[in-house]
Request: fold
Amino acid sequence: MSAEIIFGIDGGGTHSRIVLEDLSGNILARSEAGSTNIYSVSKEEVYETLSRLLDSALEAAGLEKKDLSAGCIGSAGLGRDSEKVLFQEFIDLLLWPEFPVKLCTDGETLLCGGLEKLEGYCLISGTGSVALGRSREGRMVRAGGHGFILGDEGSASWIGRTAIARCFRSLEMRDLPTDMPKALMETARLSNFDDFIHYVHYNGDKKQIAALAPAVRSAAQNGDHLALDILRVGAEELALLVKSVLDQSPWIKHRELVLAGGIIEHDIILTKMLKEKLTEQFPDLQISAPKGSALDGACMLAANLLI
Reply:
């Protein structure tokens, strides 16, 4: 084929997506498969997922591997040099050495797709949280994203964990009054609030604790003082992530921030508080909802390799 064909992969902890496009943005094929996060599944499984994604998309489009001109893999668990070395080895085997490919985090692809630009800022608050900044040339800065135990401030897992800890304090009359314990126990299917000690240390993983966030949201909507304060602190922590990437990157000229993730999308109270703080602190910063997806961003970054 004479037309240049690119692929973009949006990889996650549970499932991944691929799209094949020409440089005019015409979609030739789509496909889905399992996880590409090496911290969620084995390296062998990640390789098989990448192989399945490429093979199924190429078959659907009636193309062969030799028809591909460039690609981008944006995945959870793909930000450090050692991780990129591993994925480069995968690409060398699946395609060929020196095939033009951009390897990056799913946060970078979401930034580009969400802004529909290669430069700007992104704040993601879902199960975890991270803020990113990117220059047109690909220089990156980040704040947060250190995981459930060390950080993820303002995320669903942080809200759930903080709610448990502060409810213990409230029950001991060391914090604001709250009616949340019952709702948290019902969500976690526990009969006694003290059971959360064993739950957090032995049973509850990041996703299970993040699943408590809707109970905090509901309590806040009903005027619960402690729940409202948790969301207030969460909004402040997210604003600090944004401040960090702004302070680190005076060389980023496009002052636009895209807000993304499940907490941003669903928690109206926290998001309203966050936007108010950002508008007050950074009046020149344009705040946007995502215009496109991480998969769109992956295709943008793949196409950029051919410019």
